[in-house]
Automatic annotation (TrEMBL):
Protein family per UniProt: Belongs to the glycosyl hydrolase 20 family.
Keyword Hydrolase attributed: yes
Start and end residues of each Beta-hexosaminidase eukaryotic type N-terminal domain: 46-174
Keyword Nucleus attached: no
InterPro entries, per database record: Beta_hexosaminidase_sua/sub (IPR025705), GH (IPR017853), Glyco_hydro_20_cat (IPR015883), Hex-like_dom2 (IPR029018), HEX_eukaryotic_N (IPR029019)
Species whose genome carries this gene: Orchesella dallaii
EC class: hydrolase
Residues covered by the Glycoside hydrolase family 20 catalytic domain: 197-524
Keyword tags: Glycoprotein, Glycosidase, Hydrolase
A UniProt-annotated Pfam family: Glyco_hydro_20
E.C. no: 3.2.1.52
Name listed for the protein in its UniProt record: Beta-hexosaminidase
Amino acid sequence: MPLKLEPIQLAFLVCSFFIVDFSDAYLAPIAARLPLKGTPSPPGTPWPEPMSANFSISIATIGNRDSITFTSNLNNCSILNSAFNRYSPDLIFRDLPVESASGYPVFAGIEIILPSGIENQCGEYPRLALEEERDTYEKYELRVEQDSDSTVTAKIQAWTVWGALRGLETFSQLIWQNGTSNNFFINISQIVDSPRYPHRGFMIDTARHYVDIPVIETILEAMSYTKLNVLHWHIVDDQSFPFVSKTFPELSAKGAYLPELTYEPEEVQDIINYARDRGIRVILEFDTPGHTHVYRKSFPQLLTPCYGDGVNPGTPSPDKHAAYEILDPTKEFTYSFMKQLFTEIKNVTKDEFIHLGMDEVYYSCWQSSPEITAFMEQNNYTEYSQVQEHYTLRHLDMVKSLGAKPLIWHDPLEFGVNLDKDIVLQVWKKNGSDWAPYLQHALDEGYQVILSSPWYLNYIAYGETWREYYESDPVLSLPNITEDQEKLILGGEACVWAEYADPTNLVQRVFPYIGAIAERLWSPISTLDKNRTDDAMHRLDQHRCRLLWRGIPAQPIFNGYCFPQEKSIRRSSKK
Ligand SMILES: *[C@@H]1O[C@H](CO)[C@@H](O)[C@H](O)[C@H]1NC(C)=O
Ligand SMILES: *[C@@H]1O[C@H](CO)[C@@H](O)[C@H](O)[C@H]1NC(C)=O
Ligand SMILES: *[C@@H]1O[C@H](CO)[C@@H](O)[C@H](O)[C@H]1NC(C)=O
Ligand SMILES: *[C@@H]1O[C@H](CO)[C@@H](O)[C@H](O)[C@H]1NC(C)=O
Ligand SMILES: *[C@@H]1O[C@H](CO)[C@@H](O)[C@H](O)[C@H]1NC(C)=O
Ligand SMILES: *[C@@H]1O[C@H](CO)[C@@H](O)[C@H](O)[C@H]1NC(C)=O
Ligand SMILES: *[C@@H]1O[C@H](CO)[C@@H](O)[C@H](O)[C@H]1NC(C)=O
Ligand SMILES: *[C@@H]1O[C@H](CO)[C@@H](O)[C@H](O)[C@H]1NC(C)=O
Ligand SMILES: *[C@@H]1O[C@H](CO)[C@@H](O)[C@H](O)[C@H]1NC(C)=O
């Protein structure tokens, strides 16, 4: 059933006040020479934009730091209890004192209402919502309303604990501070909200640079503030193998940068649980048959020797291939090794999906290899894509036999490999800035897809690059898409390949820009017009201030300063 889309109703009359006078606004971007584009949003405007929201200009005052009580009809639910602890006074008010403003009704607390009988979810992990569940899986209804005793309360109705978490996040965003006063308010409001897509992710790469666990946790926190729900963890690659395998400990012993720059399986599971508490799935990626140079350090027999000089195995060819770079698809050892490794991976991960990579299998090494030539003759193969297919299909079948669902980059499709239709493809390629034909191709072939092509945050450019992310739409950017094909789109992911990113700059690189992608994937489809993007800038800037306020070092998106957050954050910097 399609979502019912309703326009957002904002208090336009009140907004116009902010155009004239920024002095009271939450955010103060500075229009220095030319007028600022777009309509500033009032304080307490949530990001991403809800499916349907009505805000009144009637407000309630927050009584004091501890006066927001959290309750639920679902007792003893660890996911909700830990969320109640997170949405603590510190998150909402930092270290500020909170004083009740006279003359306003007092806000009492928030109550979460869930259907009875879903207690078991409290011990589960979030997953990709099934098609028939998508209307309710992360849906919530949030009403801030005046009760008969004249106090104001908030009520969240949700259908799953994950929906309740999304509602709590929106609730926390509705509370605003009046200037630098100690008065905090919440508007009477009604919100009905549910995401446009069930898969809204971010990919980290911990092979090119190791990312410390506390930084991954910060990313997960900030993702939950932005309603992203999948951490795609590209954990190993050519450069390093930080995952500690109990089955093959040599992999990290020889492949990690340093013994301490590793992730023990227990640490991976801790991260998965940290993510689960925030309604975020963790999908592990172990990329093969390319991007496997690191396996050679401990298991040299896994890789095809390349014949760069035409005579000797294990010789590179400048600009074409390395001495070894792709798994050897001709040996049974390759398959039995991978079966053991993936059995362990399946036991560590909690998600039904495992990402199997399959990208950038370049043929020049195989072309140089007499062993591959002999293998092709034996199998009657005439194309190198058949060698790729040989590995790909066996590997996919093996992973399916372990009970996991494979997710792969779309390269095999582009190389003409015949894949089963139940494989989910992640589309990343672009030709210049043109990516729509790649997505269209995957849809024409009938695959379910996750889009990443327009959302590589590792490309650094001057200016407001988030606008391009915001204006890339999986449906509106495809002139030829059919209604049936729209249903094959599961969502999208922002990616950061980490050649030039590590814990010193990763969080700043990603936040708040990824918010543009999060809103594209969460909020109802809307036209791609520049005025909407201009308006979004103000809300995104407000969200950036909110992230700063919560301790996330999100980079600026424009001139200006966060008012009053920066004043509070910097209070002690100049005395
Ligand atoms: C909330 O109420 C205040 C005070 O009436 C008003 O200025 C503001 O525009 C309202 N917020 C929204 C999002 O409408
Ligand atoms: C609460 O849940 C935990 C397990 O999550 C269980 O051990 C405990 O007995 C429960 N307590 C009550 C009061 O139900
Ligand atoms: C917010 O603060 C301003 C300046 O102190 C004051 O004029 C205004 O009445 C306050 N707004 C509310 C809703 O209390
Ligand atoms: C907001 O108001 C409009 C117009 O009255 C209504 O159609 C819509 O259902 C309301 N949305 C919510 C979330 O209450
Ligand atoms: C599976 O994981 C558990 C702990 O989560 C561990 O005790 C067990 O040895 C693992 N089994 C395999 C085959 O890796
Ligand atoms: C290759 O082709 C030959 C001749 O058509 C056939 O006899 C042989 O069985 C084929 N081998 C394989 C592995 O398909
Ligand atoms: C990329 O775009 C250029 C210019 O539009 C075109 O000539 C070329 O064939 C395209 N390449 C691919 C791989 O589609
Ligand atoms: C849409 O179809 C037209 C006509 O077949 C084609 O020229 C164009 O490349 C297609 N666009 C995309 C994004 O696939
Ligand atoms: C965009 O905003 C400009 C300036 O306010 C206005 O003239 C124009 O009509 C708007 N365009 C659309 C499509 O709403």
